[in-house]
Design goal:
Length: 236
């Protein structure tokens, strides 16, 4: 139980990658705060994992402020580990991308991690410890048709991570970016990739548990070691 005694906050924790990460961190002994917008789904997930459900919308400043207040009552401090897993995903050519979809992906995939970082990083720097793990995507490095809005958010997340890594250099605050290829989560359900030739079948995708193991690996390294970027792909 490599993370016994540590505290972690995982966003998007009611399903998919976030749920798998919360489960894996709890299994390693961490106290895990699980964040999502769906109260009922989150409550079930937290009961399953043994985590602590914190209903919040991290895409807005008001939602993050409320989350920080809840954390203060639970921990009296910011957590040791912040894992940004919450995600929004849709595919469409740029000429057909809906502005609402574009704004939603930027808000959830980029603005949310920024707002949490802005709320927690000062305390991490002041106490000289902490770890921020952002779940990016291979779409944050590779341009693919139909990914304009999603890639905009994930390219932005990668840029923010790289600046963060430079700004915390020389401190005991660590920053990690994990970039998985397509992962079999409920985000794919509306697209039904098994019925399309332009998308990988679900059988060829990574599993959420694969990403969760990478998070545990990065978080479990000694304080003197920082895993900067991890790129994950299915070996199939």
């Amino acid at each position: 139980m490599a993370l016994t005694g540590t505290t972690a906050l995982v966003t998007g924790a009611s399903r998919g990658i976030g749920f798998a990460v919360a489960r894996a961190l709890a299994a390693e002994g961490a106290w895990v705060g699980m964040v999502a917008r769906s109260e009922d789904d989150l409550a079930r997930a937290a009961e399953d994992v043994g985590g602590h459900a914190i209903k919040a919308d991290i895409s807005s400043r008001a939602g993050v402020d409320a989350l920080i207040a809840d954390l203060g009552r639970e921990l009296n401090d910011v957590p040791d580990l912040l894992v940004n897993c919450a995600g929004s995903f849709a595919l469409a050519p740029l000429a057909e991308t809906d502005q609402t979809d574009f704004s939603e992906m930027l808000a959830t995939n980029l603005a949310g991690p920024f707002l949490l970082l802005r709320a927690m990083l000062p305390s991490m720097l002041e106490r000289d410890s902490g770890h921020v793990i952002n779940i990016g995507s291979f779409a944050g490095r590779r341009a693919m048709p139909g990914n304009g809005a999603y890639s905009a958010s994930k390219f932005g997340l990668r840029g923010m991570h790289e600046v963060l890594a430079e700004e915390v250099r020389g401190t005991r605050v660590r920053a990690t970016l994990i970039e998985p290829e397509a992962t079999d989560t409920p985000l794919w359900d509306p697209l039904n990739p098994d019925s399309r030739t332009d998308l990988p079948p679900r059988s060829a995708m990574l599993r959420p548990a694969d990403v969760a193991r990478a998070v545990v690996f990065a978080a479990s390294e000694p304080q003197s070691v920082e895993i900067g970027v991890l790129s994950l792909r299915a070996n199939s």
